[in-house]
Every structure is written in C-alpha cells, then in structure tokens.
C-alpha cells in the first residue's frame, strides 16, 4: 500500500506538470504517460475480460499487454454475475467479446455508474440479445456497424481530434469495421480513409471503442494495437477524477487471476480459462447403440410439452411457455402483413389492429381453448388470454390443463397462418434431393415429375445427391464403381437438364469424409461392415477410433483419414470431374468433418495411419498415447485434426475457383456451439467462411418444434463471424407436421436469413406442395424472381421494395406510431436507399456499392429512432423489419465478393 500511495502522488505531480505545460510541449509527451509511472507498481491498473470468444486470440492479446508494461487482472466473463464481479480496477477492457447476458450488461452499467471506464474492441455485444445490444450502445456511445472487406488506412478525424489521440503512431493500415456513433457525447476519434470517412474509433468521457479485433495480427499490427490501448488507458486514468484508482465496493481479489505483465516477461501468459472443459457437453446415454450425430444434436435442445403430463412446471418453463405463444402470435401477424402487401389489392384486409383485438378479447373471453375459432382475430385474442392465464393455472397446480391449453392454442394459431396467399420474399428455397428419391424415379420421366413438383412449389435450388458412401450417382472415370442401384441412365446429367429447363439451380451434393454406409449396404444386399468401394481398394486411407474401430460404436459409417494425402488427391480429382463434366451450378460438401465423438466419455476418433505419423513427426508423440486430461497436448491433437478439415476445404475452394469461377461452394454443417463442435467433430466452419472459401453455409438445424429450431438456428443467423458468406438454415421434414414446418419457415423469414433448405425431397408431401405453391410459387405474371445466390443485388432491391410496401401500408392504416413531423423524413430516406440499391443492381461498381451500403447504414441507424414508440407496442414487428434490413446488408456483402467489386 505504501508503494501504491507513492505512485498516486507521483501521478498527481505528473498530471500537474502536463496540464501546466501542455501548450508548450504537447509533442514531447508521447513517451511519458501514466503507464510508465505505474510500471513498478504491483497493483494492477487494468482488468481484462476473457471469454470463449477471445480465447483463441488470447496469446496475441497477452503478448501485446506484456509489451505495454501494464499490470492487469483477468476476469473470466462466465464468472460475472453482478457489478462487483467486474473488479475494482477503474479501467475495464473487453477485447472482441460479442456475447454478454442481460445480467452482465446490467452489471456493467452499474459498474460504469460508479466511475468505471470501458475500453472495447471489435463487434462488442453484437451476438447478444437486442436489449443487451441497446444497453451497450448507450454505455459505449457507439456500436459496430459492419465489417470492412479489406484493409483500410486509419487516420485522424476530420474534426479536431482529442489531444490524447493525435499521435502519429496511432495511424496505419488496419482491417476492421465501421463504428456508428450514438449520442451527443460520442466523438469520432479516428476514421477510415474511405468515402464519407466513417468512424473507426469512437470515444466518450467513460468509454472507447476500437473498430477492429484488437490483439489479432490479421486485423492490426502489434505496434498500432499497443499504441491505441496505451493512449486509451492514459486517457481514462487521467480524467476526470485523477485521484480515484478503484471502484468502491467491487471485488478486489484477483489473486487467482492476476497476470502481471512486464516488458521483461520471458513468455506469453498462460490463459486463465482452460481450453477444454471437463464437463460432458451432450447428455450421455446408457443404450448400447446411439442415434446418428444429427439426432443427438436435437436431444441437446429438447423442449417437449407433453399434453397429459401433470409434472410440476417451474418458473423458467412457465416463462418459456408464455414467450413461445407470444412469439407465435407475432409470427402469425407478421405473415399476414407480408401476405397483404404482396396482394394485388393493397386495401385487402390485414391483421394488426390493436383496437379490434381488444374488443375481440372481451367477446371471446369465455371461449374454451381448443374450440375451432372462425377468425384469425379471435384465434389471436384467445391465444393472448391463454398466455396470460398460464401463471394462474400453474399457481393452482393445474399443470396438465396448462399444457393442454398451450398445445391446443398453438395448433389453432398454426391454422391461421395465411397459407393460401403468396407471402414469401425473394430468397434461397432449397431442397435436398436424396438418393432414395432418385433411385425410385428410375429414369428421366419420373425424375421430371419430381422437378415439376419442386418448381411448382417455388423451390429454386436443388442439392442433388451425387456422391453417397463413395458411390457416384453417375458413371465416373475416377471412382471405382457407380451406385449399383442406378441402372441404364445418368441421373446427374438428367437432373442438370431438368433443373435448368425450369430455371432452377442444381448443386451436386457430395459426401466428403464419410466413406461407406451400413444402411446402404443393406439396400444393395452386401455385408453390413463393407467399408465402401474406395476403402475396400485402399484400406490404408481408413480412419479409426481410439479402440481401433473404423465405425465408432453406435454409428453406421466408416470415415476416411483427412490427413492422408492420397485420399485428398482422389477426392479433389473426383470433385473436379463433377464440376467440369457436368454444368452443375454448385458443389455442396457434406460429412466435411470427423465422426461424432465425446472425448470425456472415452470416445475419440482420428487415428488413421497418416494422421498418427504426421502428428508424431510434429510433436514426437503418438496421439494414441494421449488423453483429454493432458490439456495442452490434447489441444494440439484437436487442432491438428481440425486443420486437416480446414485445409481440405481451402483446397476444394481453390480447385473450384480455378475450374469454374461461377460455381457456388456450400457446406452442410452442424450447428453445435463452436468450441464444442471442434472437440466433437473438428468442424470449424466459421474459419472457412471468414477466409472466403465457401459461399453458403447450410446448418442442419433440425428440430421437431419451432422453439427448438430457434435455439439451434438463431445464434448462427445472427452471427457476425461469417464474413460475406450467406447462411441458409436447414429444416427436416421427417415427422414434422406441415404447419409446424411452415412455422419454422416463417421464423426464418422474420430473422436475418437469406433462405432455407428442406431435408428432404422424399418427405415433400402433397399438402406441403399445396401450401408452398400458394405462398411462394411463381407469380402469374411470369416475372422472374432473382435468386440470392446468383443475383444478390437484384434480390436486395426486390426485398427492399417489399419492406417499403409494408411501411407504406402500416403508415396509411396508422399501425405505427411515427410523429407526423418525422414521417416526411422517413419517406425521403426510404427513397434515398431505394435509389442507391437500384443504381447498384442496374450497373454494379465499387462506388455504387459504397453508396448503397452507406445509405443503408444511415437508414438503419435512423430507423431505430423513427420506430422507437412503435417498438414499445410491437417490438417483434420492428425487430423483423430490422432483421430484413440486415439481410439486405448481408446480400450486399455477398454480392461484393461474388462480383469482385473491390
């Protein structure tokens, strides 16, 4: 404490000296700052927050902190529950943290109110709930707008920059994103050297936000990162209350997380949070055989409402029941609004009339749930009553009745979706056309009937199963054997012709590292353990689990060893044959992963001959001898396997671009959380997206109800980690009621997604055909609808036009609360964006793209202000509009890459 007191006194003198002579020697003070004064102190002056999102960047972060010479504490984000948990150091650093819980955001607000200062970097909070994002915008005085696709020059703001941020070492080449200032106290401290000079760093009295991922070499240099952090720390430690060093009442104990940084430190600081968790991430099963990996995924998000169960309903489940009913009501209303503005007569009756609903509530208050209700308004009013009454039923312990009413109400709401009117926007409408359907077709005539049904229903993209269990569906010069279930015809050649005749995309869907299939063996009447024709010819290409099995217990497929160079060359040659011999529009990689594993249950995989030899050469250790308890070594083994998949995707991408620059590369992937997925599947598709290797990600978000589907899909739809790659969630039709499938489709349309994919054609029944034909089939005018994959800029125009029509409708019918004085400005800005999008779609150029993005970003920022009152009364619909604007922004990013407008 004595040393600390001395440091404070010295600091006060230093400040007095600086303030007194600043006008004479401002250019000489860059080497003298509060950090150098504190260098000898053992007291940390900074708290750095670590989370799962910045863990992989932690080495770069800690190296930079060491070089600055500042002592700091580390706080694991997962441990933050209250204001005190942020620590008592007066400056808090949030490097590249995109997800905070509501409790953590509220705790941060409380901590700042006590005098805390926040420095953040990257798209902070961008994956958090809407309320959290809004709170962070207020706290930081700004927010991440959108990422830049290439490196830009960082330069001082046009207006007089603050003195603390006017040093030459702060400006250089950086790859980051545009920061949107919000609030009168926000100041652009640095800007990007681009049109309109958008903000790159924004600061307030209590916060600073860097517009790049600090601590990552791909974003910024070591020296520039350090210069900015030093400047920001000094700024926040010297003003406005120099004597205050700690936050009163906060946790001062950082003995377990203290990481003393020094310029003389010999090595990077070891991350505080372990890389691998010891807890099992998927519930284990005692059955002798396990379901397929994708079925195990659904078990992790199971959300059942059993109709006759009288099991107690806890508070958390009660809230979930209410929330899901309210969300479903909003989806029904959103669907009706979309259907109404697409109708030829815009005066056609629509749903959202709060007054009529209020009157209807009274009229049907005595209606029994489950009774057939003749109108949509009555169904919505009844649903609101049921949602409102659920807590009372639970309080009276009428658990079975609460569940029965909930299920009956949900079914009744489903029936009131406008499934007889067109409502779909321009979007990717894909279906997996499976091997079974192809085989049953038996020839061109029957396969044409399949394509006719799909085209009639509005499907515009077909993932055609071309390679299954090492058997190509076509006669190949590369593969040893065509699928024996195909006789006398070439389904791939026929499918390409049929799709193109109907203006549909045809993408070859291929199994990548899954080498065989026991179920397929049964169909062709051979031994169940036959590994497939390729592994049978090349047994040294096989992969194994830790017990020496090629097929893990409870699974059905042997896998290739992705580390085997001969196997990789074979697959590349086979894929090249497909994309050069056939005019397919795309290639989709399936099974681009290792088999499902659970390391902490003793089930691991990846011990092929090539993999073991390569890893032993790299590390001197046979991977079979290590276990998940050996943290650092196991992490190296996991990274090694993950890199085999990553590098192969890059090779396929390079080959495809060389052979067919116009071809779309997509991947069918698991939507497990990133860290868990890497441990269990070694599938790191975020990396493929950020590198630009792939064009479309199709997560297999399969679930039997919308609540589960939303839990799987929404985090990835909302992710900002995917670069310019489009994301198209998958819906499994098997055992899914038709209206439940439509509900999941409506959820996708209300989120910032570019379309959907249905699994699979064999489950596409006549009732679905009727619903889809009405809601998304081709319009009678015969006008071609753009496909986002091919015409992203035109799609953006069409989708924006629908939004404009919705806004016109709700304004005309007084369904939004926008002050009259602002309506003119709102309408004018609508036209500005529409003009910019039309000019871009008509004649794309880098300048027009920049104009379109800038006008859209400005509009998005103002939109929240215009809709502030409406958001209070109808937050769901306002969020839907924001999501659709976000979809348009993503289409522009995708179009920029596909059109090479750089």
Automatic annotation (TrEMBL):
Keywords: Membrane, Signal, Transmembrane, Transmembrane helix. CDD domains: A4_beta-galactosidase_middle_domain (cd03143). The keyword Manganese does not apply. It holds the Pfam family GHL10. Residues 427-733 form the Glycosyl hydrolase-like domain. InterPro entries: Class_I_gatase-like (IPR029062), Divisome_Glycosyl_Hydrolase (IPR052177), GH (IPR017853), GHL10 (IPR003790). The chain crosses the membrane at residues 16-35. The keyword Membrane applies. This is Glycosyl hydrolase-like 10 domain-containing protein.
